[in-house]
Design a protein that fits this description.
Strand order of the largest sheet of chain B: 6-7-8-3-9-10-12-11
Strand content of chain B: 25-35%
Order of helices and strands of chain A: EEEHEEHEHHHEHEHEEHHHEEH
Chains: A alpha/beta (325), B alpha/beta (316), C mainly alpha (355)
Oligomer: heterotrimer
Helix content of chain A: 25-40%
Shape of chain B: globular
Structural class of chain B: alpha/beta
CATH class of chain B: Alpha Beta
Order of helices and strands of chain B: EEEHEEHEHHHHEHEHEEHHHEE
Distance between the termini of chain A: 33 Å
Helix content of chain B: 25-40%
Strand content of chain A: 25-35%
Number of strands of chain B: 12
CATH topology of chain B: Rossmann fold
Radius of gyration of chain A: 21 Å
Chain lengths: 325, 316, 355
Amino acid sequence: MNQQNILEVKNLNMIYTTLEGNVNAVNDLSFEIKKGSSFGLVGESGCGKTSVAMTLMQLQADNAKIVSGNILFDGQEMVGLNEKDLRKIRWGGISIVFQGAMNAWNPVIKVGEQIREAIREHYPENTRSENTNKINTLFKMVGLEPEVADRYPHELSGGMKQRAVIALSLSCDPKLIIADEPTTALDVVIQDQILKEIKKVQDDLGLSLIYISHDIAVIAEMTDYMAVMYAGRIVETGKTKDIFKNPKHSYTRMLLDSTPSIIGDKKMLKSLDGEPPSLMDNFSGCSFAPRCPEPSENCSSGNAEMGLIKVGDGHFADKCCVECG
Amino acid sequence: MKNNIIEVKNLTKYFEVSGGIFQKKNIVKAVDDVSFFIPQGESLGLVGQSGCGKTTTARTLTLLEEKTSGSVNVYNSKTNLLESIDNMDEDQLKDFRRNIQMIFQDPYEAMNPRWTIKDTIREPLLIHNLGSPEEQEEAVKEILKTVGLTPPENYLNRYPHELSGGQRQRVAIARALIMKPKFVICDEPTSMLDVSIRISIMDLMLELAKDLGVSYLYITHDLAVARYMCNRIAVMFNGKIVEIAETEELLKNPVHPYTKRLISSIPVPDPTYERKVYNINFDEIDTLIQKHGSEKPMIDIGNEHYIATHDVKGLI
Amino acid sequence: MTEVNTLKESRKENLKKNFNRFKQSKIGMTGLVIVILFGVLAILQPLLFLSGIWDYKTYDPVVGYDAEKYIAEVVVCPDEYPNERYAERKECPGRNEVTLISVKPYNPGIKEGDTIERFRQPAEPSGKHLLGTDSLGRDVFSQIMEGSQVAFILGLLSATLSVVISTILGSIAAYFGGFIDSYLMRQSDLLLMLPSLPLLFIISAFTELQVWHLALVLGILGGLGGSVITIKSQALQVKVKPFVDSARITGGSRMNILFSHILPNVAPLALLFMVFGVTGAIASESVLSFLGLLNIDMSWGLMISVSQADGYINQGLTYWWLVIPAGLSVTLLAGGFYLVGRGLDDVFNPRLRKR
C-alpha cells in the first residue's frame, strides 16, 4: 500500500441477495484517498455510493456480501477482518456522518451522554472529566456551546443536531471521515455553515474526508479529488478541477450540463432521458449506453470494453467513452 | 400592460397553537402581509427556506386553508376580470377550480395508489362532469402524449408504483393541465427527483407554459432552479416577502440583507469560482427606508425591484 | 414498458403479487391451510348427504341415530379398591358391564349377575363413525362438520357487519372531524368498556338468542367499538396525503373524496380486522352455546356442553371423542383465522416486510 494513502479500495465487488435475485450494487470499484485530502463521490440515487460508504465501515446490511476485492485502511486489510478488530477501526479509524444523521439521535438520552458512550467504547481508560473536556473541545470545534451536551436531541435545531453529529464522528479521533449527504434537509444558509465547519475541522485536524453527494456544486467546493459513479461503477475519477474543466465521460458531461446555477449566463440545460438501470440485470458492455446521447456503435451493441484508462495526470475515465468521445 | 392572472394583497395566515391548558394561545404568523402579482403568461418564483411560509401561501391561494386576512383576486375566464376568492358563488367557484391547479413535491404521494393512471388524470374531468367516458379517455390520451408519456396506452392502466419518479411527476403535470388552467402552483416539483431527470421535467413545464399560456407560481428553496424557471423571483423569509425583482436583476443586484445572505450561501458547480461574499449590513436598507418612507410594506426602488421594510435585524 | 395491459390483467397481476407475498409468511399459510380444511369439512357434509354416501337416519348430526347392540352384565361397584374383580375404581363398570343402580329404575326385577340388552352409546371411533357417536347415538364427525358450517357463517357474517360499520364510521370521524368525530370517539370508548360476553348473557335473559341474533349483536358491538378508532387513525393519514389535496383543489365534494379516496385506502386495514373478528365470533359462540344460552341445534360449544352435562368430561380421556374434537376445532379454526390475519398483515404493511 502506498504510504501516502489513507485508504485504498481495489476491485471491490459487492452484491445484495434478495428474494428476486442478486443486486450488483458495486462493480469492480477501485480508488485511493491521499492522507489529508478530501475525496468526493458523486452519483444519483441507486448508483451505489451509499453502499460503498457502508461497506467501507463494514456496516453493510445483512443481505450484503462482498464478493471480492480489497479495502486497505492505513495499511490494514479490512475485508474478512474479525468483528473485534473491525470495531477498533470503526469510529476510531474511520467514522461516518450518515444521511439523515440528524435523526440518528436517541431521543431519550442527552446528546452529551450519547457522545460519551462512543468515547467510552474506544477509550475505556479515560476518566469522566477527561471525556467532558474532550466533548467540550469537540463542540467548540463545530461551533456549539458546551451547554448543548446537557440537552436532549429534540431541543436542538436541525443545524445544531447536524453539528453535534459531526462532533460525534470526531469523538474517537478518526483519521478518515465519511460524510454521506450530511446536509440534506438543511437550509442552504445552514448548509453553508456546516460545510465551512467541516472544512475547518478537516484542516485543523489533518483529517481525510470522503464526501458523498448527488449535488455536484457541493462536490466542486468541498473536494480535491472526486469519482463519478453510475450503476455501481466508477466511470470517471481524478482531480476535481480537471474533471470539471475537462469531463471525459458522457455521464459526467451530462451531470455538469444538467445542473442549474446562479452564476454565469442563463443557458438551456441538457437532460437525460430514461432511468438508471436496474442493478439486477447483468449487462454486457457499458451500462450507460441506453442513455448516452452520442453512443458509438460499440457502446450500443453492448460490445464495449470497460475499464478505466488514463486521460490525464491522475485523471481516469471509462475506456468506452474516451475512445468514442 | 398585461393582464394579471392573480393579485395578492396583504395576505396573512395565522395559526393558533395552544400552549397548554393554563397558557394562552401562541400565534404563529405563517404568512405575514404578503403581496405580489403575476402577469398572464409569466412565472413567479417563490424562494425561501423550509418553514418560511411558502407552502402555506400556496395552500391559502388554493383554498385548502382559509386565509386570516388580505385579498386575493384571481382571473375569471368567463368575465375576463379579476375576482376575489371571498364569497364566491357556485359559478365563480367552478371557474376558480378549473383555473387553478397545483403540482406537489412528492410524485408518489400525489396519486391515489389504488387508482390507475387513467383514473388519476381523468378525475378533474369527472368532478366537473366534462365529456362522455370516451371523450374523457381521448383527452387523457392526448395529455399523456403532450407530457411525453407515449404511447399513452402503455400508461393508462398502470398503477403509480409501477412508474418511476420522473414518470409519476409527468402524470401529475398531465392531471394538472388536463383542464387547461391558467395558473398552476408548483410546490418543489423536482426536489425529490434524480438530478438528471429534473431538467427534463422543468423543460417540459416551460414548454407547456409557452404552448398553453399557463402562469406558474414556482415554489422552491433552490434559487438556481427558480432562475431557470421564472421571470421574476420573490424571496420569502419568516412569513414575509423581503424582496421581489426580475430574476437576473435580483441575482446581480440583491439589496435586502437576507437575499444577499441567501445568494452568498449557495454552492456553485465550478471549483475555480470564488463565491461573492456579501457584507451583510443594514445601512443600505435603512437609507432606503428613510428615503422612501416606511408606511408601505414594500419600497419600489425602480426597475420593478421591490424591497421589504420589515424589521428583520435580529433574525438574520 | 412495451406490453399493453388491460385493467383486468393489471388487477390480476396485482393480486398474484400479493398472494405470492402472502405465501412467504409461514404463519399465514398455516392459518390458510387450517381454514381451508375446515371449509372443506363444512361443505363436505351436505355433499355426503346429497350423494347418498351418508343417509340422514344414521348420520344426521342432530336427529341421527346409530348404536350397536350388546349384552351387558349387571354389576354392583364395590366401595374399596383394589379388589378381586377390579384394580381401580374407574374400571367399574367395565366395557360390557352396567351398574345395578343405573338400570334398576327401568327394570325393577333386575338383580346383580343378570344380563341385559344395551345399546352402545356413546361408541368409540370405528370405521363406520370416524369420531364415534355421542350419548344420543349421533355421529360426532357429522356434528363437527355441522359446527364448522355454523362457525363459518356466524364468524363471517358478524365480522363483515362489524367491518362495514367500523370502516364507514372511522372514515367519517376522520374526514369530518369536529363534533361528529368527538361523538364517535366517545361512543367507541363506551363500547370498549362494555364487556361483550356478559352483555350477551344479559341479552339472552330477555330474549331467546338465535345464531342470527348473535351475529347481529357481535357485528354491531364490534363495529361500533375499538376498531373505529384504529380505522380513524388510518383514515387520518390518508386525509393529509397530497392526492386528497389534489382532489380538493380540483373541486371534489367531501362525499366524493370520502368514498373514492379515503375508503379504498382504508379497506386493507379493515380486511385485516375482519379476519380477526371471525376469531372473536367463533370463540364467543362456543362460550355461549357451552353455557346453553344459545338457541342452536348443533355447534361445537354445544357438543362440549352436552358432554359436560352427561358427566363424560369427568371421566378423563375415556370418552375423549366427546370432548377433544369439538374443543380442538374451536381452537384450531379461531386460531387459523388469526394466523391468516397475521399473514395478511405482512402483505398490507410493507414496513413489516423483511426483504
